[in-house]
Amino acid sequence: MAQFRAKKLDLGCFINIKVIRDHTKRKVFEQHEPERQALRYIIRNTSLPQRTRAQAQLQLTQMHCYTRPTQIRNRCIMGGRGRGVLRDFRMARFQFRMNALAGKLPGVQKASW
Amino acid sequence: MSGPSCARALISATKRVKISSPTTNGQCLPLPRCTISGTNQRRHDSTVVEASRHLDLTPGAAEAPPTSITPANIDQELANLRLPRAVQATYLDPLRHPPTLGIKTAELQLRSYSIRNLEVFTDFCLRAAYYLKLAAKGPIALPRQVERWTVPRSNFVHKKSQENFERRTVSRGIKILDGHPEVVATWLAFVKKHQYYGVGMKANVWEYGSLETGKDMDAEAERIAGRLGEQLDLVGGKEGLMVKHAQTVEGMLGSEPFKARWGAYAAMGGAGGVPSAGRRVESVRVGKKAARARAGKEVDAAKAE
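^ inputs. structure came back:
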């Protein structure tokens, strides 16, 4: 969503719209996390009046989808791919292989055992 | 093994030293003492005497049988020359102080992907501990961590043809027994100052206090508050500083050369995933200059009062 997006490019890795979108989602989630957690706490707290809890529920559902943690997906920093991204290197499997064979990943070698 | 020449020299030095596994290290402990009383020591004495004889011009000295160095035996003479103690020590296992009580005060863990770098630096740490008069135990070989990844060779389909990669992390531990907290801190600072490429370090430090630790901590907090004054609320976040430099920093972050400099375009560039990647540590200057500057400030403050 454009209203959340940074006016100036604030990323240093491979850039495409999916990467920018994911980055925006991360920032928005970070910004709204306390609010979400507070609402979640109110909803789950049985000692609070039912009305308050229902209101909190409504508020939580009405928050923008970018504020949800489930919207965040790890993407490849070298090619922006969303699948097969190795968490350790934040790279998709093929980029990982290329970089590993080029010796750009410290300590990673071809294994044989 | 590609690295700066100084580093290569250090590594080849260890090859000569033949740093052995920790099991044999234990057996080699009394070695230095043996060599001190060995033939090398005697050789050293004789050379000293020789030198004095050459200088001595009294008739009695002239009569003494001079040891002649001819081109034939010069190689042997050179080989028999004793190295300076400090140089000779580098060829031997690091010396150790025996612990007095055996209470563990610090534990340093070193990790690397390269066993040679690790061995060199562990040796260095042990020597540093010896010269700081700390009783050190080690190097303790900790379990090697092997991470493996299997990825398809191709960028698309063909799952049947895959390739395996692995990363082996070797680690060594050093235990410091009965160390004074300040000495241990000095040792850790020294080791950190001279940290070696490709070797990561992690330290646990234990301090033992009296039963009134809570009171001591309160007193310490008050002392710090008194010394820092208004600056105390800047500790940690340093909000004032951040706001002041926010513009310049933002500009720097966006500039291409800056990003290239910290490796944003490299393979694992921009490692924002690392927990402390975004943190910038305020550098504290230590030394005569800084001390002088501080003293100057105090004098100014006194004058103002």
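The longest helix of chain B spans residues 39-55. Chain B touches chain A at residues 113-114, 147-149, 151-155, 163-169, 198, 253-254, 259, 264-270, 273 (CB under 8 Å).
thumbs up if we can close this ticket
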